[in-house]
Structure formats: structure tokens, C-alpha cells
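Dissemination and training. As part of the outreach component of the grant, students in the summer workshop were shown how a complex can be specified as a set of sequence lines and then modelled as a single object. The example used during the hands-on session is reproduced here so that future cohorts can follow it. Participants entered these lines:
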Amino acid sequence: MLLHTEHLTKSYNGFRALDDLNLTVTRGEVVGLLGPNGSGKTTALRLILGFLRPTTGHATVAGHDCWADSVRARRHVSYLPGELRLYENMTGRQLVRFLGELRGDERRADVDALARRFDIDLDRPIAHLSSGMKRKVALLQVLVPHAPLLILDEPTNTLDPTMRDELLAQLRQARDGGQAVVFSSHVLGEVEQVCDRVAILQRGRLVHLQEMKELRQGRLVHVRFGGAAPAPPDLPGLSVREQGDGRATWEHAGDLPPLLEWLGRQPILELRIEPLGLSGVYHRYHGAVA
Amino acid sequence: MTLTLIRKQLRDLRLALFVVGLLLAAFECLWVKITERISGKLVPLLSGLAAASRIGFGQVQNTIFEGPGKILRTLIGGESVNLDNAMQVLSIGYVHPLVQTVLCVWAIGRASGAIAGEIDRGTMELLLAQPVPRSRVVLAHLCVDVLTIPILCLCMWAGTFLGTWLVGPIRMDPSELKKMPFKVEADESKLELRPAAFGPSLVNVAALVFAVSGTTLWLSARGRFRGRVLGTVVVITLLQFLINVVGQMWDALEWLRPFTVFYYYQPQQIAMSARWTVAWGEWATVNVLAVLFGVGAAGYALALWTFTRRDLPAPL
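and obtained this result:
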């Protein structure tokens, strides 16, 4: 277990920005934090980084408390902030070197290779770079140290589609290399592409923890009947999402043939089966509010 | 790690350090020339006028500094400064309001940006996302103060030396003396400039900058926006300066002076009479360096205590 949070809570004058978060992340796993603005994603990440003192509960990285033993915890973490601010008077190379020296990490070999891959000119002053380029430099400084845990706060902001794909590929590569990744995002598609688990936050609370493997096995079944919608069959893994007016939408994670057989006996006008996807789960919590 | 932080801060500060150092050196250099004009031209003229009027030079000086002139006298060092002594006039260069302003601008500007500035800009979280203890950040700022403050002090001293070398020994011009309709007696001993005498005073200058820097750093460690910290410290420092000046002219405020850092800024008396203490009322004296370095050290200790316990807010 690399990251562990237990009843992690942060309150500001009675307002709970994060409420009782229990989460565990192991090596070789990518976990996505999902939720609208103000749901507590960034607060959770800042607590893990030791920027904020928990009101109650605690978080540990590699067994080190994120507040009381923050420096040791941060040795295992590489972080990309959501609101990106870099030292504008440095070049990309100087920044990477500076942050590397602070880590006591002299690893330089990767820098140029990654820079070429990201198409970054490391010798230009950061002040002269576009916001997308700055984000690439920041990503570079996250990837170079090969920290066991990567924490990325909305990492694909301002990246073009090619670079976003490149980043997601890098995250998969990091996972395959045994690194763990926790990242927050608003973009469900990219979370679906890369995550092994998804944590959905709502008003500071973790409301849903989903294995993506399970999600990928699930499907949504939309049916329009030629009359009133009958009660769904009693099949394992079938649950009703919506039903009425001759229409039904069911979630199904079991074997398909028994369901198709049952449907074949019904007066069906229209049938559509699609992968369940993250959108369905997400909108269960944030559909109307998000 | 600390060395990396220090190097980075010095890199960020180098231009400002150069400009402020140059400014201080240039001012002290210029002040030697002003001293030469006052001691070599103005004082003989006034002395002659005094002799012709059969009054002492002190009386002329008192007349100049009467009424509104008292503010001027307070600003240049009070009653301990006599215009007929070139060294005492030269010492005004170390207490001149412009010099104190430049020193305070340096201390406040640097320290206010040290923590609140980085939080404000959003770069603090980039820094603290690395395995850097917050205490090291404060330590690095302390080291930067320890390195840069002596450089500024030495710039002032170098300016005095350079000015003395450029101006040469102060002499009353005999041809000018002859033109005067009265006899002027030159006291050459009062015209001698000894810039080396200001060496010990530099420690007091450094102590003042350290005190202001330390207290500013504490507020910076509490703050989130550099502008607010800057504004607060400027108001506090300005109030202290005014209380110290007004307290010298108005007895009702005299008791407040020991609560200001400027009360302990005494480079003139250190250079002229090697006196390192000031009075605390009528019952005690206190070493000026102990107070100023103590205030600075307390500021740093409070900054450390505050910064290692506070939340780091997200940049806006």
C-alpha cells in the first residue's frame, strides 16, 4: 500500500471541504478523482502533499504521515499543480535542474529524451512559453524524478489532443513500471482510458469507488416496449436505472444470452445496448447538479 | 538543499542587490562632497559671521536649527551633531532619511516577498511539493540576509572611502578666506575625515536591516498576499520612524521611542564616541545591537514557528 487515507477531513470554519475520505492506492495503479468544482478533489491532493493540516484523520505515503512526517512522505511523491505557476525567470532546463537538486536527484539522462518526446525547447525562458508549453515543462519535472507516486491535479488542462494522448501514454507507462498515479480530472473520457479505479467525490465526500474493470464489463440496456414496460427479469447483475411510459433503462453486468432470450419474448419496438461507461456512474451523483 | 535554495534566491536578488548597493555607495560618496562643502565653505562663512557679531558658532547653529529647523536637526542626528566638525557632518550620511529609507525598502521588499510573495505567485507549492522542509526555506532566507546585509553595509562604507579619496583632505581655501571682510580662524583638526571610524557603525546598520527583515519575514510567513504584507509593514515602519523623530521634539511622546527599532539605530554615536548603549528611561541602558539583533532573531523564530504550522492555501 503506497497511499492510505483514513477518515481524512479538512474543515474551514465549520465548512467541510473534505469529509472522512478513506482511500488506498497501491503501486502500479492509476486512480482517478472525479467530481465537479468544490467537490474536494484538490483539497484531498493538497492534504496528501502536506500543504494542509488535516482537521481530523490522517494520510500516509509509504507509511509516512503526510503532515507530521511530510518531508519523507514527499520524497515518494511527484506533483503537478492544477493552477500552474513556475519560476518564470528560469529556463525549463534550469527549473528541472533546480527541482532535481532539491530532491537530491541528479537524474538527468531522461530529461532530453522526454523533452524531445514532449517537443519542448528546454533552453527557452519559461516566461516566453505558451501556457501549453509551460504545462509540458511542468509535466516533465513530474516525470523525471521517477517518484513512486505521481499526483496530478487536472493534468491535461491546456494540452492539445496529441499531447494529452502522449501524457496518458506516459501514465500507463508509469503504472506498468510500478508507479502509482492519482489524478483529478473533469474529463471522463481520459479517466476511462487510463484509470484502474475511480473515486467520485460529492461535496467533500467520497460517494463512489469504482473498479474500472467492473465498469468495462457492465452495459446499459435501453428498451422501448410496444405497451407498458414489464417488470425486469430476475437475472443476476441486472438493476433498473429508469422505467416507465413503455421505456426502460437497465444496468447489466451479467451474462448477456439469458437477458436477450427474455427480451426476445417481449413486444419490443426498439433495443439499444451500450457499454455502461463512467458517464452513467458519474451522472448518478452529479447528473443534475454538475 | 539549503545551498540550492540560497543560490536560487541570490540569483533572483542579484540585480536588486547591485542597484541598492550602488545607490548606497553613491549616496555616501556624494555625502563626502556635501561634507566638504559644508565644512570647507559654509562653516567658515558662518564662523566669520559669528566672530564679527561677537557670538559663538554654537549660537549661530542653534539659530539655524530653531523652530521648524528642529525637525532637520532631529533628522540629522540631534544635538550631538555640530556642523563645525567634519566627521560629525560626515556621520549624517549614515542616518540620513534617504539611507534609512533605502535600507528599509531593501529589508521589507525582500522579506515580504520571501514567503507571502511565493504563495501569492503560486510558486511556493512547486517548491514544497519537493521534499523540502519548511524550516529550510526560512533558514535559506536567514542565510541570504546574513550574506546580503553585510554587502550593503560594505557598499556604504566603500562609498565613504571612495568619496574621501576623491575629495581629498578638506581645506579652507586661503583665497576664499581672504575675500571675507572678517577674520576666520581655521581649526584643521575639525576638518579631518576618518572613514575607517565608521567600520563599527556598520554593525549597527546591519542590525537595523536584520531587525526590519526579521519582523517582515514573520508577517510574510503569516500572509497570503505580498501586497498586503508590504502595505502593513510599510505602515508599521513609517509609524516607528515618525514616533522616533517626533519623540525627540515632543517630550510627551519621548517614552514611546524605545518601542521603535530606529531608537536603537545609533551609527553616529558609535562612530563618534564608541557608545553602544541607549537609555531605557532613567533607570537602565541597553545595548543597541542586542535589541536589534534580538528583534530580528525573534522575527525569524516566529516566522519559523508560523510557517511550519500553517496551511498553504492554493494560489488564486
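Chain A has two domains: 3-214, 218-286. Students were then asked to discuss how this feature might be tested experimentally.
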